[in-house]
């Protein structure tokens, strides 16, 4: 993750899902609370991203996520562990 | 109606459960089981109803809504789920009802009827009851106007199948069904599989080592935190009917924007922000600096569960340390946000599991872990474009918690709602919480750097005084006395066994003694010691000191020499009138002082001749030099000499004459030792009004039968006793058959007054008597009173200290430093006319306790009592205890008097004293009792002890039930007539050893003595997988908890036909008690009055 560049990241799969729930521009460095992604919206992002309805979400890990970048990394790793990527 | 917990015939589960379609079967969650348990415990079957309202497109015809709702039920299996508890707890599904069979009623109406019909519909749904074995656990009403301009779908679901989040999938599916886009056929099996998958995932996650470790940690944290009790105080109900009231606090657009700005700036979630505010509000209103509240957290695990209705919530405790000095921003960042984060990490832990490890008091029907709740309600937003236009939840007229705060984002901004139980929080108290909440949110949002204490302002006004006052004819005590002496020269002023003295005689003797004192160099403000032996000499010496604008200092020759030396040295007292020897001072007899006065000379004359020598002119206002010095009998450290001046004493006298209805006919018993300030109230006001002060002697102070004879024979009208003497007085008067017809007023003071039936009955039989409970430290005069008469029955056992006397401002200052809101405990500070000058020759301790009074005029002072009190909903002050020696057991404030009052209800108990000993977790209660009847009747004493234990368990919350009841022969008292608890506690170990010396071998081994006990023992041994259970050991200590208790009680019901209330079990969780309960229940059923066995609904 490049700390210096505030590149817009809403063009990939994760980013475009986040963009559905957020009304302000954001980067990987954006804090989730700062861009208004509350815990309920966060759950909706996760549910929208993960295709396997039987897959479990680790709520404790979810609670640790602070930035868009962390959310992206976590989603990709969970999806990979679930055996599929969107 | 109660729900059956057995499997209905015809739905016996298959051996191999299916994940969809017929044969679907899944485990219940711990949380669902917990709720079933509460359902069985609490006699409010609709307590866990969730009532919601969807505002509908009024264009939607009823039949279309009916068909759509039927489709929703098809794809939401939880709404067709039944909850069964035998043979093992499990869930089953029924087929979706046809549209016609839906529990949905169509209620069209004229537009004008909307409000009424809407209220009635919400009310009806709120009270709906469900049979857990007969799904759907849902009812709905389609409310609509016939003009087609307004429509709503109101629905109720039982919480076991529906949490707050469920509103979201429900509305999504309803919108889709109404739009014709819901593919019910393909969704139904998917959703059934998803629900089962989620329930299995919940089961698998429930007992992992991580979850267990987190539950242990949460339990430990809760055990070490004090209980957050709102509106604490004696007589607080331990059980309520769970009635709820709601109050709304919409923050409005402007404040809501400020809240959001502040929390985004601080990087906090709404949950963390409102937790920070709420924890401060709860800290203020509970008087604690550590507070606990619960919050429901989404505990859904699988991706698919987020499309489902269901009950996947873990309500978990959050614990906050509140430091009043730190800023709101620091509290949020340093305490609230980390706590919220920490609980989110532990969201897999169920409430029941925390209860298991927190080992809370289970004797109440209230929530065992927390009294307060914060619910973030974020599922009521609706997406535009659907047939559902808006969504909201309704209160159901119930309160599961003492106080519940709901926070909902709405289009108009944040909506805060308080729901409270008015039995615990009367409306003025709840209003106070709402005010605190409003000001704290505002201050936190506008300036997060505000210290926590500064989020609040004064929560009430200074209480008004009682307005009782008889204005003095002249503004000085001695002047007033002389005024009366001239008016009634031949009236009797003082009576003691030596004889009577008229007002003229007393006045002349005072003159003579004052002259003698003056010649010996006594000047205004000087301290003159008194060791006078008779009441007459005492009265004369007191007024002689006052006549010289000097102070009298009572000295009790019974005190150790060292202490007397300290007192005279500290007060710079070199001259003593009376008898005996006092170290550091010259003692002169009254005759010696007055005798050398010279023939015709009077002080009055001398005063005229030599005005500079400070003899009080009649009419000289409240001389600063006149008054007394009294030493407080501090239990530790050096005693403090309180310098009391004429101003407060005049105020007290003027109040007392009116409040105690005193006049020339008053005959006041002089009972108190001179060294206690009560003696002033007995003597001086009586002599100001022209009444007679009557010596207690020859009766001994401790011989109450003799005192009663003196009261009757002496035609006394006013009696003032220490609290500890009231019961012996009442018993003595009853034994003597004394009607006390001449007495009008009985005053008591000195410690917390606890009354019981015996005392109340005594006054009811003598309705002409007024009992006045007075409160006031030596550093002020008597400052508050509560009046009771037998004509108005229903006395509170813990008698309030009442309302301030005239001229006194009584301020209850809470932990934030502001005047406490109603129902909030705080330190009592006393201002206005009452504070003394301070402590004699002790500037440092004076400045510490006598402080500036910002509520008075410039220069005003107030005295910090160190006493915790609270103003009740109607402003009456209730004494809670000292700051420094509060009795707390497992975090609960314990009122010893309440335990004693409960014990006194037993007919054999003559006196009862509760006391606490041990520290921290070892701290426990003992009850000492003096029993009526022949002493040493060991067998009968044992019976009484057992009966008492049962009686106390029935009447008191579990944490207040003493561990042991110890009979004693006498209850020792201290010098000033208060019960000597340390002396009693010192004998405790010996008493216990004596009681438990001859062990009963059967009981020690815990062997059952009847077949029922044996069967119950077997049942529990099986359930807990332990062989070491005994009849009297607490099953909770052996591993019983809310979930296996439910199983045990279900089995007992099946085997013995006895339905045992869960709460009854928790009150006395032993095999012996359980057997007793089963027998009582079976007996009642056999008599044809009890419930039918096997859980048949009644």
Automatic annotation (TrEMBL), chain A:
- Taxonomy, superkingdom: Bacteria
Identify the keywords attached in UniProt to this record, alphabetized: Phosphopantetheine, Phosphoprotein
Q: What InterPro entries does the entry give?
A: ACP-like_sf, PP-bd_ACP, Ppantetheine_attach_site
**Domain Carrier, which positions?**
14-74
- What is the designated name of this protein? Acyl carrier protein
From TrEMBL, chain B:
User: Which Pfam family would be a valid example here?
Assistant: PP-binding
InterPro entries for this protein: AA_adenyl_dom, ACP-like_sf, AMP-bd_C, AMP-bd_C_sf, AMP-binding_CS, AMP-dep_synth/lig_dom, ANL_N_sf, CAT-like_dom_sf
GO CC terms of this entry: cytoplasm
| Cofactor(s) it depends on | pantetheine 4'-phosphate
Q: One biological process GO term for this chain? A: lipid biosynthetic process
Q: Which organism is it from?
A: Streptomyces triticirhizae
Q: Basic and acidic residues composition bias: which ranges?
A: 840-851
What this protein is called in its record is Non-ribosomal peptide synthetase
Transmembrane spans: none
Task: Work out whether the entry's keyword set contains Transcription.
Answer: no
């Amino acid at each position: 993750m490049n700390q210096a560049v505030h590149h817009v990241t809403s063009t990939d799969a994760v980013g475009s899902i986040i963009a559905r729930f957020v009304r302000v521009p954001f980067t990987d460095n954006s804090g989730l609370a700062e861009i208004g992604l509350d815990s309920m919206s966060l759950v909706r992002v996760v549910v929208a991203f993960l295709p396997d309805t039987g897959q479990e979400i680790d709520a404790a890990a979810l609670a640790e996520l602070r930035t868009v970048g962390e959310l992206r990394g976590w989603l990709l790793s969970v999806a990979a562990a679930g055996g599929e990527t969107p | 109606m109660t729900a059956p917990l057995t499997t209905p015939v015809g739905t016996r589960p298959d051996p191999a459960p299916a994940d969809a379609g017929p044969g679907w079967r899944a485990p219940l969650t711990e949380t669902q089981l917990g709720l079933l348990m509460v359902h069985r415990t609490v006699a409010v079957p609709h307590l866990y109803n969730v009532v919601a309202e969807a505002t509908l497109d009024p264009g939607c015809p009823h039949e279309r809504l009916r068909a759509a709702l039927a489709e929703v039920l098809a794809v939401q299996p939880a709404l067709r789920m039944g909850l069964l508890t035998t043979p093992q707890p499990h869930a089953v599904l029924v087929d979706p009802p046809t549209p016609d069979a839906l529990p949905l009623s169509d209620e069209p109406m004229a537009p004008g009827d909307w409000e009424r019909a809407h209220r009635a519909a919400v009310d009806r749904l709120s009270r709906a009851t469900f049979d857990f074995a007969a799904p759907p656990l849902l009812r709905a009403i389609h409310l609509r106007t016939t003009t087609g301009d307004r429509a709503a779908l109101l629905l109720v679901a039982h919480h076991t199948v529906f949490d707050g989040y469920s509103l979201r999938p429900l509305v999504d599916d309803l919108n889709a069904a109404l739009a014709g886009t819901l593919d019910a056929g393909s969704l139904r099996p998917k959703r059934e599989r998803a629900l089962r998958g989620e329930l299995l995932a919940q089961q698998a996650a429930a007992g992992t080592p991580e979850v267990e470790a987190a539950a242990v940690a949460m339990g430990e944290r809760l055990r070490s935190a004090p209980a957050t009790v709102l509106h604490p105080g004696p007589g607080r109900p331990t059980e309520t009917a769970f009635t709820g009231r709601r109050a709304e606090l919409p923050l409005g657009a402007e404040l809501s924007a400020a809240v959001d700005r502040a929390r985004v700036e601080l990087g906090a979630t709404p949950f963390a922000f409102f937790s920070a505010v709420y924890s401060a509000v709860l800290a203020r209103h509970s008087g604690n600096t550590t507070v606990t509240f619960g919050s429901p957290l989404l505990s859904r695990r699988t991706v698919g569960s987020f499309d489902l209705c269901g009950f996947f919530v873990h309500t978990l405790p959050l614990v906050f340390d509140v430091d009043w000095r730190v800023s709101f921003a620091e509290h949020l960042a340093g305490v609230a946000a980390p706590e919220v984060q920490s609980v989110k990490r532990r969201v897999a832990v169920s409430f029941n599991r925390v209860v298991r490890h927190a080992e809370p008091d289970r004797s109440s029907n209230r929530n065992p872990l927390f009294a307060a709740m914060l619910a973030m309600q974020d599922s009521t937003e609706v997406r535009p474009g659907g047939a559902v236009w808006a969504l909201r939840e309704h209160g159901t007229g119930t309160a599961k918690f003492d106080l519940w705060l709901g926070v909902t984002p709405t289009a108009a901004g944040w909506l805060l709602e308080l729901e409270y139980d008015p039995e615990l929080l009367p409306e003025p108290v709840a209003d106070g919480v709402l005010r605190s909440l409003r000001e704290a949110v505002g201050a936190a949002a506008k300036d997060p750097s505000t210290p926590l204490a500064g989020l609040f302002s004064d929560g009430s006004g200074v209480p008004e005084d009682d307005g009782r006052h008889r204005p003095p004819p002249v503004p000085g005590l001695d002047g007033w006395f002389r005024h009366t002496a001239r008016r009634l020269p031949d009236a009797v002023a003082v009576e003691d066994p030596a004889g009577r003295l008229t007002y003229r005689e007393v006045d002349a003797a005072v003159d003579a003694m004052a002259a003698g004192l003056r010649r010996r160099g006594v000047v205004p403000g000087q301290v003159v010691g008194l060791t006078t032996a008779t009441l007459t000499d005492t009265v004369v010496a007191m007024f002689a000191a006052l006549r010289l604008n000097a102070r009298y200092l009572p000295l009790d020759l019974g005190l150790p020499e060292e202490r007397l030396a300290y007192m005279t040295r500290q007060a710079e007292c070199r001259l003593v009138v009376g008898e005996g020897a006092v170290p550091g001072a010259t003692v002169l007899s009254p005759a010696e002082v007055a005798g050398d006065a010279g023939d015709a000379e009077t002080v009055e004359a001398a005063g005229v001749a030599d005005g500079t020598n400070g003899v009080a002119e009649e009419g000289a206002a409240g001389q600063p030099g006149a008054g007394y010095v009294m030493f407080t009998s501090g239990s530790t450290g050096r005693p403090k000499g309180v310098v009391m001046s004429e101003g407060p004493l005049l105020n007290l006298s003027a109040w007392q004459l009116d409040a105690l209805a005193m006049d020339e006919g008053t005959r006041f018993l002089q009972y108190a030792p001179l060294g206690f300030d009560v003696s002033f109230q007995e003597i001086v006001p009586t002599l100001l009004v022209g009444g007679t002060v009557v010596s207690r002697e020859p009766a001994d102070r401790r011989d109450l039968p003799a005192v009663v004879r003196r009261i009757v024979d002496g035609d006394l009208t006013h009696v003032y006793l220490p609290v500890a003497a009231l019961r012996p007085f009442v018993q003595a008067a009853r034994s003597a058959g004394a009607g006390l017809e001449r007495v009008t007023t009985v005053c008591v003071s000195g410690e917390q007054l606890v009354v019981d039936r015996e005392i109340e009955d005594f006054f009811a039989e003598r309705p002409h008597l007024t009992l006045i409970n007075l409160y006031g430290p030596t550093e002020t005069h008597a400052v508050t009173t509560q009046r009771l008469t037998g004509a108005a029955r229903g006395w509170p056992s813990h008698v309030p200290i009442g309302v301030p006397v005239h001229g006194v401002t009584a301020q209850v200052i809470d932990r934030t430093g502001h005047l406490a809101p109603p129902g909030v405990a705080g330190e009592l500070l006393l201002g206005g006319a009452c504070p003394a000058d301070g402590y004699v020759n002790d500037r440092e301790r004076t400045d510490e306790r006598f402080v500036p009074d910002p509520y008075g005029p410039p220069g005003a002072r107030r005295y910090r009592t160190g006493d915790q009190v609270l103003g009740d909903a109607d402003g009456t002050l209730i004494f809670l205890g000292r700051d420094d020696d509060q009795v707390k057991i497992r975090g609960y404030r314990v009122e010893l008097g309440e335990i004693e009052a409960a014990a006194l209800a037993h007919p054999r108990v003559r006196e009862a004293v509760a006391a606490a000993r041990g520290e921290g977790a070892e701290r426990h209660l003992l009850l000492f009792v003096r029993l009526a009847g022949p002493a040493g009747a060991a067998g009968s004493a044992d019976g009484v002890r057992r009966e008492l234990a049962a009686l106390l368990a029935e009447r008191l919350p579990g944490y207040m039930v003493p561990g042991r009841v110890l009979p004693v022969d006498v209850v020792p008292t201290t010098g000033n007539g208060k019960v000597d608890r340390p002396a009693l506690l010192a004998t405790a170990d010996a008493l216990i050893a004596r009681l438990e010396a001859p062990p009963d071998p059967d009981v020690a081994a815990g062997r059952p003595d009847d077949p029922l006990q044996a069967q119950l023992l077997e049942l529990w041994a099986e359930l807990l997988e332990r062989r070491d259970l005994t009849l009297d050991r607490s099953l909770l200590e052996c591993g019983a908890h809310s979930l296996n208790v439910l199983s045990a009680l279900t089995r007992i019901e099946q085997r013995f036909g006895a339905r045992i209330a869960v709460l009854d079990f928790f009150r006395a969780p032993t095999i012996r008690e359980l057997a007793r309960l089963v027998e009582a229940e079976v007996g009642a059923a056999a008599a044809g009055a009890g419930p039918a066995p096997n859980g048949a609904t009644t």
